[in-house]
């Protein structure tokens, strides 16, 4: 009898010890990322993603592209409000993202005139560029426009970059890890990121003409420059944040060359020097495109920023997503000086927040065109922060479409007037 009790107690203690060991190991493995914590985490995220977006993946509803409307006027009657004035009224506004006309194409770029009316739409048929992904599972992100009425586009998770004419026919196509912003350098080249490599492509052919790898910049014989790319040098989210080296430690999201026509405003730089953004390091920097040597850099105060731009007055402006604060900002800094000016921040009167993505553009009259990507909204504000007009990219009563970029061009930009595509016979 006593032996039986002892045997049962021994078995119970063994099982309890196994449970305790499993709990301890599970806790420690989750802290340090040991097996099987990453696998369990991936399985859980995959399950949640499928549960939330199965309608998207079956091409029933584009749930991956739908978001809660941003701004103060987010009710069912939202759409275009206000009136285009000044520079915007004398030109055109392009908006890229998911198409509101799904029977024509999944993605599109839409052109609006100075009265706010749609005058042209480029159908972006992703299946023409890459057959390895479904159109509903990629995001049209980068967009650039040309005087002949064509546009070039890139895609998040899409592995393609393409130039299409006014009717959406492919002019050239490149397979590669292109994403985020595209800019023209004024010398016949497009500047963009391909993975962790800044890439210059010929506008007419799409062929690569030059590259600058982040690894080449890290390899420069300069300890201060090497430290710039150390993930532990970035601005932390909190003072006690435990920073770990992630699968995507840099997350490059913009690159643009200093154009010759404004280079004199930047005594520290030369025409062709490249301004770039690494989101995960909260880093905005300018590099020599041939040597990779940094001429200027700054970590923050922006947080998870996008779209730094050279401005004609010798300053650099930054779209500060300010993730986690519910209030994005446009910041301005003059290279070589410490002061960072807040040009615009969301307010109760003019809410403005995009936790990721987003673009901004200064207009000739001093107003700013903003793309609130994760609010599905495009808006123009005055230098005083007053709302001039806004456009919600409406999907239904409760959702907007993600808007990835709005772009202003003057009325005489297009060589033959607003682009047109002949109706099919």
Automatic annotation (TrEMBL):
Residues in the signal sequence: none
Residue spans crossing the bilayer: 12-34
Keywords (A to Z) from UniProt: Membrane, Transmembrane, Transmembrane helix
Cited Pfam families: Arylsulfotran_2 (PF14269)
Entry keyword annotation includes Membrane: yes
InterPro entries associated with the record: Arylsulfate_ST (IPR053143), ASST-like (IPR039535)
Transcription regulation recorded as keyword: no
Protein name: Arylsulfotransferase ASST
Organism phylogeny: Bacteria, Pseudomonadati, Pseudomonadota, Alphaproteobacteria, Hyphomicrobiales
């Amino acid at each position: 009898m006593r032996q039986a009790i002892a045997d049962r107690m021994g078995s119970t203690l063994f099982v309890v010890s196994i449970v305790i060991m499993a709990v301890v190991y599970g806790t420690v493995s989750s802290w340090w990322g040991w097996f099987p914590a990453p696998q369990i985490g991936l399985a859980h995220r995959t399950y949640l993603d499928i549960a939330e977006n199965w309608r998207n993946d079956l091409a029933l509803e584009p749930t991956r592209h739908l978001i809660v409307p941003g701004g103060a006027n987010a009710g069912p009657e939202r759409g275009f409000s206000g009136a285009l004035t000044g520079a915007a009224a004398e030109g055109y506004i392009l908006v890229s993202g998911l198409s509101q006309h799904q029977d024509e194409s999944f993605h599109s770029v839409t052109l609006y005139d100075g009265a706010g009316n749609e005058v042209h739409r480029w159908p972006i048929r992703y299946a023409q560029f890459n057959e390895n992904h479904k159109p509903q599972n990629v995001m049209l992100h980068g967009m650039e426009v040309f005087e002949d009425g064509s546009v070039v586009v890139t895609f998040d998770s899409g592995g393609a970059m393409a130039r299409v004419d006014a009717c959406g026919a492919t002019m050239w196509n490149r397979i590669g890890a292109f994403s985020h912003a595209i800019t023209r350098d004024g010398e016949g080249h497009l500047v963009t990121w391909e993975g962790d490599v800044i890439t210059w492509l010929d506008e007419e052919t799409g062929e690569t003409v030059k590259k600058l790898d982040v690894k080449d910049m890290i390899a420069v014989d300069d300890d201060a420059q090497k430290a710039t790319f150390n993930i532990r040098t970035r601005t932390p989210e909190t003072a006690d944040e435990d920073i770990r080296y992630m699968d995507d430690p840099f997350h490059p999201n913009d690159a643009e060359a200093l154009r010759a026509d404004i280079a004199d405003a930047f005594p520290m730089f030369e025409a062709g020097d490249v301004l770039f953004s690494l989101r995960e390091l909260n880093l905005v920097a300018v590099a020599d495109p041939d040597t990779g040597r940094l001429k200027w850099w700054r970590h923050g105060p922006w947080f998870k920023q996008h779209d730094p731009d050279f401005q004609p007055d010798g300053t650099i402006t930054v779209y500060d997503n300010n993730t986690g604060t519910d209030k994005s900002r446009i910041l301005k800094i003059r290279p070589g000086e410490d002061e960072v000016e807040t040009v615009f921040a969301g307010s109760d009167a003019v809410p403005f927040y995009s936790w990721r993505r987003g673009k901004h553009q200064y207009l000739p009259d001093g107003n700013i065109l903003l793309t609130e990507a994760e609010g599905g909204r495009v808006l123009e504000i005055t230098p005083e922060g007053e709302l001039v007009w806004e456009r919600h990219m409406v999907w239904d009563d409760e959702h907007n479409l993600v808007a990835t970029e709005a772009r202003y061009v003057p009325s005489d930009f297009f060589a033959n007037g607003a682009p047109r595509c002949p109706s099919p016979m």
